[in-house]
Amino acid sequence: MTAPETLRFENHRLILIDQTKLPGELTELVCTSVAQTHDAIRRLVVRGAPAIGIAAAYGVCLAVPADETGTPGRSRYIDAIESLATSRPTAVNLFWALDRMRQIVDSTPEAELKDALVAEATRIHEEDRQMCHAIGRNGAPLLADVQTVLTHCNAGGLATSTWGTALAPIYHLHQTGDAPKVIADETRPLLQGGRLTAWELSQAGVDVTVITDSMSGSLMRLGKIQAVIVGADRITARGDVANKIGTYPVAVLAKHHGLPFYVAAPTNTFDLQLDCGDDIPIEQRGREEVAAPHGVRIVPDAADVLNPAFDVTPAELVTAIITERGVIKQPSRDAVAEHFANA
Ligand code: MRU
Protein backbone atom coordinates (compact mmCIF):
# COMPACT_ATOMS: atom_id res chain seq x y z
CA MET A 1 0.00 0.00 0.00
CA THR A 2 1.45 3.41 -0.92
CA ALA A 3 0.72 6.02 1.74
CA PRO A 4 0.52 9.65 0.64
CA GLU A 5 3.75 11.60 1.11
CA THR A 6 2.38 14.45 3.22
CA LEU A 7 5.61 16.42 3.21
CA ARG A 8 9.19 16.13 2.07
CA PHE A 9 12.34 18.23 2.07
CA GLU A 10 14.22 18.28 -1.24
CA ASN A 11 16.94 20.65 -2.47
CA HIS A 12 16.37 22.87 0.53
CA ARG A 13 12.65 23.23 -0.25
CA LEU A 14 9.76 22.05 1.92
CA ILE A 15 7.16 20.40 -0.32
CA LEU A 16 3.70 19.91 1.16
CA ILE A 17 0.56 18.27 -0.15
CA ASP A 18 -1.84 21.23 -0.14
CA GLN A 19 -4.53 19.78 2.12
CA THR A 20 -6.80 22.78 1.64
CA LYS A 21 -7.35 21.58 -1.94
CA LEU A 22 -8.18 17.93 -1.19
CA PRO A 23 -10.09 15.94 -2.27
CA GLY A 24 -10.73 18.01 -5.43
CA GLU A 25 -7.09 18.50 -6.37
CA LEU A 26 -3.91 16.71 -5.34
CA THR A 27 -1.39 19.54 -5.60
CA GLU A 28 1.78 20.49 -3.79
CA LEU A 29 2.88 23.74 -2.24
CA VAL A 30 6.58 24.54 -2.14
CA CYS A 31 7.94 26.57 0.78
CA THR A 32 11.35 28.20 0.52
CA SER A 33 11.10 30.55 3.51
CA VAL A 34 10.11 30.61 7.15
CA ALA A 35 7.24 32.99 6.37
CA GLN A 36 5.79 30.61 3.77
CA THR A 37 6.04 27.69 6.21
CA HIS A 38 4.34 29.74 8.93
CA ASP A 39 1.55 30.63 6.53
CA ALA A 40 1.15 27.01 5.36
CA ILE A 41 0.75 25.80 8.96
CA ARG A 42 -1.64 28.63 9.87
CA ARG A 43 -3.82 28.02 6.78
CA LEU A 44 -3.85 24.23 7.34
CA VAL A 45 -2.07 23.44 4.08
CA VAL A 46 -0.22 21.10 6.42
CA ARG A 47 -2.09 20.13 9.57
CA GLY A 48 -2.36 17.39 12.17
CA ALA A 49 -0.16 17.55 15.26
CA PRO A 50 2.85 15.43 14.14
CA ALA A 51 2.91 16.88 10.60
CA ILE A 52 2.87 20.43 11.99
CA GLY A 53 5.92 19.58 14.11
CA ILE A 54 7.84 18.05 11.21
CA ALA A 55 6.97 20.94 8.86
CA ALA A 56 8.06 23.49 11.46
CA ALA A 57 11.38 21.67 11.97
CA TYR A 58 12.11 21.87 8.24
CA GLY A 59 10.81 25.45 8.26
CA VAL A 60 13.60 26.41 10.69
CA CYS A 61 16.15 25.20 8.10
CA LEU A 62 14.65 27.65 5.60
CA ALA A 63 15.84 30.60 7.70
CA VAL A 64 18.93 30.51 5.51
CA PRO A 65 18.56 29.99 1.74
CA ALA A 66 20.31 27.05 0.11
CA ASP A 67 22.55 29.19 -2.07
CA GLU A 68 23.75 31.53 0.67
CA THR A 69 27.47 31.27 1.21
CA GLY A 70 29.26 32.04 4.45
CA THR A 71 28.37 31.05 7.98
CA PRO A 72 24.89 32.08 9.10
CA GLY A 73 24.64 33.33 12.68
CA ARG A 74 22.48 31.62 15.29
CA SER A 75 20.09 34.55 15.59
CA ARG A 76 18.33 33.93 12.25
CA TYR A 77 17.50 30.40 13.32
CA ILE A 78 16.34 31.58 16.73
CA ASP A 79 14.08 34.17 15.08
CA ALA A 80 12.68 31.41 12.83
CA ILE A 81 11.94 29.18 15.83
CA GLU A 82 10.22 32.02 17.65
CA SER A 83 8.16 32.90 14.60
CA LEU A 84 7.06 29.33 13.82
CA ALA A 85 6.01 28.88 17.47
CA THR A 86 3.26 31.45 16.83
CA SER A 87 1.71 29.57 13.91
CA ARG A 88 -0.78 27.43 15.90
CA PRO A 89 -1.17 27.10 19.68
CA THR A 90 -2.71 23.73 20.58
CA ALA A 91 -0.64 20.88 19.11
CA VAL A 92 2.27 20.44 21.50
CA ASN A 93 4.22 18.53 18.83
CA LEU A 94 4.98 21.92 17.25
CA PHE A 95 6.75 23.16 20.39
CA TRP A 96 8.39 19.78 21.00
CA ALA A 97 9.93 19.82 17.49
CA LEU A 98 11.00 23.47 17.79
CA ASP A 99 12.63 22.70 21.16
CA ARG A 100 14.67 19.98 19.51
CA MET A 101 15.77 22.38 16.80
CA ARG A 102 16.64 24.98 19.45
CA GLN A 103 18.86 22.48 21.25
CA ILE A 104 20.81 21.98 18.02
CA VAL A 105 21.09 25.75 17.52
CA ASP A 106 22.42 26.14 21.06
CA SER A 107 24.87 23.23 20.98
CA THR A 108 26.37 23.27 17.48
CA PRO A 109 29.29 25.39 16.18
CA GLU A 110 27.95 28.03 13.77
CA ALA A 111 29.91 26.64 10.83
CA GLU A 112 28.08 23.32 11.15
CA LEU A 113 24.62 24.64 11.95
CA LYS A 114 23.07 24.53 8.49
CA ASP A 115 23.75 20.82 8.00
CA ALA A 116 23.08 19.91 11.63
CA LEU A 117 19.61 21.47 11.52
CA VAL A 118 18.63 19.66 8.33
CA ALA A 119 19.90 16.43 9.90
CA GLU A 120 17.80 17.00 13.04
CA ALA A 121 14.63 17.81 11.07
CA THR A 122 15.20 14.68 8.98
CA ARG A 123 15.59 12.65 12.20
CA ILE A 124 12.32 14.06 13.58
CA HIS A 125 10.63 13.08 10.30
CA GLU A 126 12.08 9.56 10.31
CA GLU A 127 11.26 8.99 13.98
CA ASP A 128 7.66 9.93 13.21
CA ARG A 129 7.48 7.25 10.51
CA GLN A 130 8.64 4.67 13.01
CA MET A 131 6.25 5.91 15.69
CA CYS A 132 3.29 5.67 13.31
CA HIS A 133 4.13 2.07 12.46
CA ALA A 134 4.63 1.20 16.15
CA ILE A 135 1.26 2.77 17.03
CA GLY A 136 -0.24 0.67 14.24
CA ARG A 137 1.22 -2.52 15.71
CA ASN A 138 0.26 -1.63 19.28
CA GLY A 139 -3.28 -0.57 18.41
CA ALA A 140 -4.16 -3.36 15.98
CA PRO A 141 -5.11 -5.94 18.65
CA LEU A 142 -7.65 -3.49 20.11
CA LEU A 143 -9.46 -3.25 16.77
CA ALA A 144 -8.94 -6.84 15.63
CA ASP A 145 -12.51 -7.97 16.44
CA VAL A 146 -14.17 -4.68 15.59
CA GLN A 147 -16.40 -4.65 12.51
CA THR A 148 -16.92 -0.90 12.28
CA VAL A 149 -14.90 1.84 13.95
CA LEU A 150 -15.73 5.55 14.12
CA THR A 151 -13.07 8.22 13.78
CA HIS A 152 -13.25 12.00 14.04
CA CYS A 153 -11.17 14.53 12.09
CA ASN A 154 -8.08 13.22 10.28
CA ALA A 155 -5.37 11.48 12.26
CA GLY A 156 -4.04 9.56 9.29
CA GLY A 157 -1.08 9.73 6.94
CA LEU A 158 -1.99 13.28 5.99
CA ALA A 159 -1.59 14.36 9.62
CA THR A 160 1.82 12.69 10.03
CA SER A 161 4.71 11.39 7.94
CA THR A 162 2.84 8.19 7.07
CA TRP A 163 -0.07 6.01 8.30
CA GLY A 164 -1.07 8.46 11.05
CA THR A 165 -1.97 7.68 14.63
CA ALA A 166 -5.67 6.82 14.85
CA LEU A 167 -5.61 5.33 11.36
CA ALA A 168 -2.34 3.43 11.87
CA PRO A 169 -3.95 0.35 13.52
CA ILE A 170 -6.47 0.30 10.67
CA TYR A 171 -3.71 0.41 8.03
CA HIS A 172 -1.82 -2.25 9.98
CA LEU A 173 -4.85 -4.57 9.88
CA HIS A 174 -5.49 -3.67 6.25
CA GLN A 175 -2.17 -5.25 5.30
CA THR A 176 -3.66 -8.66 6.06
CA GLY A 177 -7.11 -7.81 4.73
CA ASP A 178 -8.58 -7.57 8.25
CA ALA A 179 -9.24 -3.84 8.58
CA PRO A 180 -12.52 -2.83 10.17
CA LYS A 181 -14.91 -0.67 8.18
CA VAL A 182 -14.42 2.99 9.03
CA ILE A 183 -17.07 5.59 9.67
CA ALA A 184 -15.60 9.07 9.35
CA ASP A 185 -17.30 12.04 10.98
CA GLU A 186 -17.23 14.82 8.39
CA THR A 187 -15.80 17.11 11.14
CA ARG A 188 -17.24 20.59 10.86
CA PRO A 189 -16.22 23.26 10.10
CA LEU A 190 -13.20 22.39 7.93
CA LEU A 191 -14.28 18.84 7.07
CA GLN A 192 -11.00 17.04 7.77
CA GLY A 193 -13.00 13.80 8.08
CA GLY A 194 -15.14 14.17 4.97
CA ARG A 195 -12.35 15.57 2.83
CA LEU A 196 -9.12 14.03 4.15
CA THR A 197 -9.84 10.83 6.09
CA ALA A 198 -12.27 9.69 3.40
CA TRP A 199 -9.72 10.56 0.70
CA GLU A 200 -6.74 8.77 2.17
CA LEU A 201 -8.64 5.66 3.31
CA SER A 202 -10.35 5.24 -0.04
CA GLN A 203 -6.99 5.74 -1.82
CA ALA A 204 -5.66 2.87 0.31
CA GLY A 205 -8.67 0.65 -0.39
CA VAL A 206 -10.12 0.78 3.13
CA ASP A 207 -13.92 0.75 3.32
CA VAL A 208 -14.96 4.21 4.53
CA THR A 209 -18.36 5.89 4.98
CA VAL A 210 -18.73 9.59 5.78
CA ILE A 211 -21.44 10.81 8.15
CA THR A 212 -22.34 14.26 9.41
CA ASP A 213 -21.11 14.97 12.92
CA SER A 214 -24.60 14.68 14.40
CA MET A 215 -25.21 11.11 13.18
CA SER A 216 -22.82 9.09 15.34
CA GLY A 217 -25.11 8.82 18.40
CA SER A 218 -27.89 7.34 16.36
CA LEU A 219 -25.54 4.82 14.70
CA MET A 220 -24.18 3.81 18.11
CA ARG A 221 -27.72 3.27 19.41
CA LEU A 222 -28.45 1.07 16.39
CA GLY A 223 -25.35 -1.03 17.15
CA LYS A 224 -23.56 -0.03 13.95
CA ILE A 225 -20.33 1.14 15.64
CA GLN A 226 -18.25 -1.06 17.96
CA ALA A 227 -15.36 1.28 18.84
CA VAL A 228 -14.07 4.84 18.42
CA ILE A 229 -10.47 5.81 17.70
CA VAL A 230 -9.16 9.38 17.42
CA GLY A 231 -5.83 11.22 17.49
CA ALA A 232 -4.73 13.98 19.85
CA ASP A 233 -3.09 17.40 19.75
CA ARG A 234 -2.04 17.47 23.39
CA ILE A 235 -2.43 15.03 26.29
CA THR A 236 -1.86 16.13 29.89
CA ALA A 237 -0.15 14.30 32.76
CA ARG A 238 -3.52 13.02 34.01
CA GLY A 239 -4.52 11.82 30.54
CA ASP A 240 -6.92 14.58 29.45
CA VAL A 241 -6.93 14.80 25.66
CA ALA A 242 -7.25 17.85 23.40
CA ASN A 243 -8.33 16.92 19.89
CA LYS A 244 -10.45 18.35 17.08
CA ILE A 245 -13.65 20.09 18.16
CA GLY A 246 -16.41 17.50 18.37
CA THR A 247 -14.24 14.77 19.89
CA TYR A 248 -15.61 15.31 23.41
CA PRO A 249 -19.27 14.71 22.48
CA VAL A 250 -18.22 11.53 20.64
CA ALA A 251 -16.47 10.33 23.83
CA VAL A 252 -19.60 11.07 25.88
CA LEU A 253 -21.72 9.14 23.38
CA ALA A 254 -19.29 6.20 23.41
CA LYS A 255 -19.46 6.08 27.22
CA HIS A 256 -23.26 6.14 27.15
CA HIS A 257 -23.35 3.25 24.69
CA GLY A 258 -20.65 1.23 26.45
CA LEU A 259 -18.21 1.46 23.53
CA PRO A 260 -14.42 1.70 23.87
CA PHE A 261 -13.00 5.15 23.14
CA TYR A 262 -9.35 4.93 22.07
CA VAL A 263 -6.85 7.75 21.59
CA ALA A 264 -3.74 7.09 19.49
CA ALA A 265 -0.79 9.48 19.76
CA PRO A 266 3.00 9.42 19.95
CA THR A 267 4.58 10.25 23.31
CA ASN A 268 5.66 13.64 21.94
CA THR A 269 1.95 14.62 22.03
CA PHE A 270 2.05 14.47 25.85
CA ASP A 271 2.57 17.71 27.72
CA LEU A 272 3.58 16.48 31.16
CA GLN A 273 3.96 20.08 32.39
CA LEU A 274 0.18 20.38 32.32
CA ASP A 275 -2.00 18.36 34.65
CA CYS A 276 -5.51 19.33 33.69
CA GLY A 277 -6.98 19.59 30.20
CA ASP A 278 -8.55 22.96 31.07
CA ASP A 279 -5.03 24.44 30.93
CA ILE A 280 -4.47 23.45 27.30
CA PRO A 281 -4.52 26.53 25.03
CA ILE A 282 -7.37 26.09 22.59
CA GLU A 283 -7.00 27.73 19.18
CA GLN A 284 -9.87 30.06 18.29
CA ARG A 285 -10.25 30.45 14.53
CA GLY A 286 -12.02 33.06 12.41
CA ARG A 287 -15.79 33.35 12.01
CA GLU A 288 -15.77 32.86 8.23
CA GLU A 289 -14.89 29.15 8.52
CA VAL A 290 -18.25 28.62 10.22
CA ALA A 291 -20.31 31.46 8.79
CA ALA A 292 -19.28 31.23 5.13
CA PRO A 293 -17.81 27.80 4.30
CA HIS A 294 -16.38 27.72 0.77
CA GLY A 295 -17.45 31.35 0.41
CA VAL A 296 -21.17 30.56 0.79
CA ARG A 297 -22.78 32.61 3.58
CA ILE A 298 -24.90 30.40 5.82
CA VAL A 299 -25.03 32.56 8.97
CA PRO A 300 -26.46 36.12 9.06
CA ASP A 301 -23.91 38.86 9.71
CA ALA A 302 -25.81 39.91 12.84
CA ALA A 303 -25.19 36.57 14.55
CA ASP A 304 -22.04 35.88 16.53
CA VAL A 305 -20.09 32.71 15.78
CA LEU A 306 -17.85 30.55 17.98
CA ASN A 307 -15.04 28.61 16.30
CA PRO A 308 -12.77 26.79 18.76
CA ALA A 309 -10.64 24.35 16.76
CA PHE A 310 -10.29 21.81 19.59
CA ASP A 311 -12.03 20.49 22.68
CA VAL A 312 -10.87 18.53 25.71
CA THR A 313 -11.95 15.00 26.58
CA PRO A 314 -11.35 14.15 30.25
CA ALA A 315 -9.28 11.05 30.94
CA GLU A 316 -12.29 9.36 32.59
CA LEU A 317 -13.91 9.00 29.16
CA VAL A 318 -10.83 7.45 27.52
CA THR A 319 -10.60 3.64 27.49
CA ALA A 320 -6.94 3.57 26.46
CA ILE A 321 -4.21 5.70 24.90
CA ILE A 322 -2.08 3.93 22.31
CA THR A 323 1.47 5.23 21.89
CA GLU A 324 4.56 3.94 20.10
CA ARG A 325 5.63 2.44 23.43
CA GLY A 326 2.47 0.48 24.19
CA VAL A 327 -1.03 0.98 25.58
CA ILE A 328 -2.05 3.07 28.60
CA LYS A 329 -5.23 1.43 29.86
CA GLN A 330 -7.69 3.65 31.75
CA PRO A 331 -5.41 6.69 31.67
CA SER A 332 -4.79 8.46 34.96
CA ARG A 333 -1.91 10.42 36.49
CA ASP A 334 -0.34 7.17 37.75
CA ALA A 335 -0.87 5.21 34.55
CA VAL A 336 0.67 8.00 32.43
CA ALA A 337 3.65 8.36 34.82
CA GLU A 338 4.23 4.61 34.71
CA HIS A 339 4.17 4.62 30.90
CA PHE A 340 6.90 7.26 30.80
CA ALA A 341 8.90 5.65 33.62
CA ASN A 342 9.08 2.41 31.63
CA ALA A 343 10.61 4.15 28.61
O1 MRU B 1 -6.90 21.42 12.90
P1 MRU B 1 -6.20 20.15 12.52
O2 MRU B 1 -6.67 19.59 11.23
O3 MRU B 1 -4.70 20.30 12.58
O4 MRU B 1 -6.60 19.13 13.67
C1 MRU B 1 -6.06 17.84 13.62
C2 MRU B 1 -6.54 16.96 14.71
O5 MRU B 1 -7.31 17.34 15.56
C3 MRU B 1 -5.95 15.58 14.76
O6 MRU B 1 -6.88 14.67 15.27
C4 MRU B 1 -4.71 15.59 15.66
O7 MRU B 1 -3.84 16.61 15.29
C5 MRU B 1 -3.98 14.29 15.62
S1 MRU B 1 -3.16 14.03 14.08
C6 MRU B 1 -2.33 12.55 14.17
From TrEMBL:
InterPro entries named among the record's database cross-references: IF-2B-related (IPR000649), IF-M1Pi (IPR005251), IF_2B-like_C (IPR042529), Initiation_fac_2B_a/b/d (IPR011559), M1Pi_N (IPR027363), NagB/RpiA_transferase-like (IPR037171)
Top EC class for this record: isomerase
GO terms, biological process: L-methionine salvage from methylthioadenosine
Swiss-Prot/TrEMBL site (Transition state stabilizer) positions: C153
Residues reported to bind substrate: R47, G48, A49, R88, Q192, N243, K244
Reactions catalysed, as given in the entry: 5-(methylsulfanyl)-alpha-D-ribose 1-phosphate = 5-(methylsulfanyl)-D-ribulose 1-phosphate
Protein's UniProt name: Methylthioribose-1-phosphate isomerase
Organism: Stieleria maiorica
This protein's encoding gene: mtnA
